Amino acid sequence: MRTLVTVVSLALVAAAGCAPRHHGAPPMGHPCPGKQALAPSGARAPEDLDRLFGERLNAGDVDGVVTLYEPTATLVRQDRSAATGTAAIREEIAGFVALRAHITLSVFRVLLGGNDIAVVYDDWSATGTDPNGKHVAFGGHASETVHRGVDGNWRFVVDDPDARSAPSRAVPRHHAAKRSHAPAAHRAHPSTTK
Predict the structure, then answer these.
(1) Quick one: three-class SS letters along 32-94?
(2) Are 137 and 125 in contact (CB under 8 A)?
(3) Residue among 154, 147, 115 nearest 4 (CA)
(4) Backbone phi, then psi, for 50, in 5-degree steps?
(5) Least CB-packed of 159, 162, 186, 190 within 10 Å?
(6) Within a 13 Å sphere around the CA of 137, how many CA atoms are in the beta-carbon half?
(7) Using CA atoms, how far apart are residues 156 and 50, in angstroms rounded to an integer?
(8) Of 76, 81, 75, whose CA–CA distance to 170 is shortest?
(9) What is the pLDDT of residue 78?
């Protein structure tokens, strides 16, 4: 099946010809003189999403992380509320980057639900520095529903960093904000959230 997808993709590229590009000169040997090569691909397999998430977050690339999500995706916050849509997800990721977080993710299972939907399970841990200069460490056990778009790249649809973590005592949102200076997605006990 993967071979068929590759052959179909190559046929579509060949049939489309050289589409105009707007950023710089093509690399040497590019098949369309005067045109730029396509940008490096995104997540070509479901498990690539976690690798790219880690690389981009660790580099402080908020926009790069946000591009890994569908425009109407949901990122589940620590208080179990939903950050839905690009703007809300960007705010959560920016808060995480503000901690100068370094994250490590370990995918241990991918369940395919047809050709274009999958669930990715990973365990993760992160360290950072809060606004007071205090070292913080947290982690979780994520479950992520992902979708492959028409461009062949996988993106998060629902990202629940604590889906498989032990349930914690529910904390009203206005109280959670007083407990930590971390972004909403990273509040509560020190061992939670991606």
Answers:
(1) CCCCCCCCCCCCCCCCHHHHHHHHHHHCCCHHHHHCCEEEEEEEECCCCCEEECHHHHHHHHH
(2) yes
(3) 115
(4) -70, -40
(5) 190
(6) 2
(7) 10
(8) 81
(9) 87
> For residue 166, what pLDDT is reported?
66
Identify the pLDDT of residue 114.
87
What are the structural domains, with CATH classification, of the chain? 1-39 (no CATH), 43-186 (3.10.450.50)
So what's the pLDDT on residue 167? 62
Q: Tens of pLDDT along 97-133?
A: 999 999 999 999 999 998 899 999 999 999 999 999 9
Is residue 42 within 8 A of residue 29, CB to CB? The reply is no
**Residue 171: per-residue pLDDT:** 38
Q: Which residues of the chain have pLDDT under 50?
A: 1-40, 169-193
User: Cα(11)–Cα(184) distance, rounded to whole angstroms?
Assistant: 46
CA angle 50, 51, 55 (to 5 degrees): 115
DSSP secondary structure letter of residue 167: P
